[in-house]
Amino acid sequence: MRIIFSGGGTGGHIYPALAIREILLKKHNFESGYVGVIGGMEEKIVTRLSDIEFMGVRAQGMPRTISPKWFSFPFVNGLGIIDAWKHLKKFKPDLVVATGGFVSFPILIASKIAGVPFVIHEQNAAMGVTNRIFSKKAAKVLLTYESAAKIDNKRIILTGNPVRDAFLKQSITQSRFKKNEGEFILLAVGGSRGALSINKVCIDLANEWLPKHPEVKLIHISGERDYEIVTKAVSQKPENYELLPYLHEMKEAFDVADLLISRAGATILSEIAVCKKPAILVPYPYATDNHQEKNARTLEKLGAAKVLLDKDLNLNNLIQLVSEIRESGNLSKMSEAMSKSRPEDVEERILKQIEEVL
Fold first, then answer.
1. What is 250-306 written as a DSSP string?
2. pLDDT reading at 66 higher than 80
3. d(CA 291, CA 7)
4. DSSP label at 203?
5. How far apart are CA 269 and CA 274, in angstroms?
6. Does the structure show a pLDDT above 70 at 171?
7. What is the chain's mean pLDDT, rounded?
8. How distant, in Å, are the alpha carbons of 22, 109, 245, 306, 331 from that of 300?
9. Under 8 Å CB-to-CB from 328, ≥6 apart: which residues?
10. Residue 24 to residues 165, 217, 287, 348, 354: CA-CA distances in angstroms?
11. pLDDT value, residue 174
12. CB 138 within 8 A of CB 111
């Protein structure tokens, strides 16, 4: 049996695809392929794995504003469909599993033409453009949120969002991160590409606030894009500040953190829920249909998180919110509420639905 996975542009599409692959590998033997954009983030992540073949295609996202890219958009994706067709003919998959992003467009078009069945997984509260285009022809459409599409419990199913196997394992005894007795650890992450507003407020924390509060440590994962900017802006790093451009073993940081500062993409929210961590969520303000704020508000209503809008994110507001959470004694209640925000049987649900197609 052979299965192709696809999804990319951000880690929010890539990691669910790899998580679904891990779910299937626990019960089935098959050869794996991964279709993604040549030179894209998915190539960097997937090629770290030894037992999956990366297949590069050309693809370009649909421009959201008037731009010269409107002229290159159809040609690049046309070439990508040809690339994907060649990969299909060579690899001969029994199934394609796509998790969204413009990266998936060429392989889904080629699969539709070739008659190869495909399953779509949507992570967000509002369905992305590529998934929406192909949802009517998919063998199964798996959803994280009910709001993404009308569920029929036959073809369109609510499963939840999978996480990588590393997040489902117990905390490891040896970690790169150490936590001293009485230390409160903040973990700031902006997603796979980083978040400039979160990075800016972390710069202020490191320069102005952390030196006066040695009992608090900030682990700041800036994203590779802004890493040099942050490094230059924090010229004298306090001892209680640790800066990383990216972290593949994210679970290690989650395990030691007391409170997270994060965007509100579906994938990282699922990882936060599995690790039972309270969070301050700063939704990306330009997300499709404002789905990140919808995600964040849902968790806020559950008592699992506090929402701080991007426009309101500054040093004073963040410090005030962190202090309120610490002093209220609600960290444990928030942690419990976060753990209940995600179904415990997500992986079993996804396995069942894909097995029906197989």
1. HHHHHHH-SEEEE---HHHHHHHHHTT--EEE---TTSGGGHHHHHHHHHHHHTSEE
2. no
3. 19
4. H
5. 9
6. no
7. 92
8. 31, 39, 28, 5, 13
9. none
10. 11, 38, 30, 10, 8
11. 66
12. no
CA angle 128, 129, 133 (to 5 degrees): 115
In angstroms, rounded to a whole number, what is the distance separating the alpha carbons of residues 272 and 278?
8
Q: How far is Cα of residue 278 from the mean position of the Cα atoms in its chain? A: 17
**Mean pLDDT across 82-92:** 97
Mean pLDDT for 256-279 is 94
User: For residues 10 and 106, is the Cβ–Cβ distance under 8 A?
Assistant: no
Look up residue 331 and give its amino acid. Answer: L
pLDDT in tens, 203-231: 999 999 999 999 999 999 998 889 999 99
- Output the six-digit token pair for 169: 């394992």
What is the pTM for the complete model shown? 0.81
Q: Where does 122-241 have alpha helices with state H?
A: 129-134, 165-168, 196-204, 227-233
The per-residue pLDDT for 173 is 59
Task: Identify residue 70 by its one-letter amino acid code.
Answer: W
Q: pLDDT band at residue 341, thresholds of 50, 70 and 90?
A: confident
- Residue whose C-alpha is closest to residue 253's, from 339, 187, 190, 159: 187
Pull the structure tokens for residue 346: 């997500």
State which H helix or E strand residue 327 sits in.
helix 315-328
The token pair at 136 is 């009517």
Tokens of 37: 């954009």
Q: CA Rg, the chain, in Å?
A: 21
| Alpha-carbon span 182 to 180, nearest angstrom | 6
DSSP 8-state code for residue 126: S
